[in-house]
């Protein structure tokens, strides 16, 4: 079982696909859920600790907008944990979106720099393309099993 970072990092569709092939999806949804349920958080939506902005500085310089650093404090550790990645390009906002173009670019750059196996697929616009994308992702996930 490999830990697979998915992009967009909140895509339930990609997360489900990764799980179906026996791998662990690294999704921001799980990280946010852990933070909201954490005992050290006083009350949502104040779901940041004093340490979170410091974590964000590990991934983005002080001159970078605070929203990017805040998002990267959650996404960066997922990327560090990743053993592989699926990147869906040109996905509509409803598919899963961080909502910040700079964070999206930094996330993709960081995972590519890591050097783990990555598959890049373009969001399908029709049923036939969707079948092809699923087959490509399935093949990629199966190839990860062969590496073990």
TrEMBL record:
Domain of life the protein comes from: Archaea
InterPro entries in alphabetical order: Methan_mark_5
Name assigned to this protein: Methanogenesis marker protein 5
The organism's taxonomic lineage, starting at the top: Archaea, Methanobacteriati, Methanobacteriota, Methanomada group, Methanococci
């Amino acid at each position: 079982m490999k830990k697979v970072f998915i992009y967009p990092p909140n895509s339930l569709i990609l997360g489900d696909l990764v799980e179906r092939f026996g791998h662990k999806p690294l999704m921001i949804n799980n990280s946010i859920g852990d933070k909201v349920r954490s005992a050290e958080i006083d009350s949502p939506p104040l779901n940041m600790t004093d340490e979170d902005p410091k974590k964000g500085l590990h991934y983005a310089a002080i001159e970078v907008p605070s929203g990017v650093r805040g998002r990267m404090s959650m996404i960066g550790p997922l990327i560090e944990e990743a053993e592989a990645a699926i990147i869906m390009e040109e996905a509509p906002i409803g598919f899963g979106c961080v909502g910040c173009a700079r964070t999206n670019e930094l996330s993709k750059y960081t995972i590519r720099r890591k050097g783990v196996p990555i598959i890049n697929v373009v969001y399908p616009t029709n049923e036939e393309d969707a079948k092809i994308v699923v087959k490509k992702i399935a093949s990629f996930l199966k190839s990860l099993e062969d590496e073990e």
